[in-house]
Structure formats: structure tokens, C-alpha cells
Amino acid sequence: MFLKYPESTDLIRALNSFFETQIEIQRIKRGNSQTFETLINEEALLLAMYIRNELPAWNPRTPKIANSQEHARVIFLERVIRQHIES
Known about the structure:
The chain is mainly alpha-helical.
């Protein structure tokens, strides 16, 4: 299945907007908020550190999201990531 040009452009814009959404989860090094893109990158780093036995446990920070709409988006992404890890 292929999307036509207007549909694909709208999808790309919506996805980009989603990844640039600010969320209230403290960053690893500094700051009290970050974008979803940064959260995904930091969670990937923490997971890699756990796999290399540099961390005793990997506890995703996604449940700390207060806004239910943001929470649903992040939980969906977390499920997708976990499915790829397990397969």
C-alpha cells in the first residue's frame, strides 16, 4: 500500500510534530523537559547500557508522563520498541 503525495506529506508532518512534542520528563544530564525524540534516544542509550551490564536494571521513564494523551503515545512507542527487541 502506498500513500499519495498529499497523504504522505500530511503523515510526515504529523509524525515530525509528534516527535517534537515537549514532555515533562527530566533529561539524563540537564533540563526538566525534553522532546519525544530525545526521550527515545535516551531510553535507547539506557537500554544499551543495561544490555552491556553497565546498569543493574532498565526502568523506562515513560510511566512518569502526567498527560494521558502523551502517556498513550509513549506507551504505544514503548510497545513497538519492546516487540522489536523480543523478535
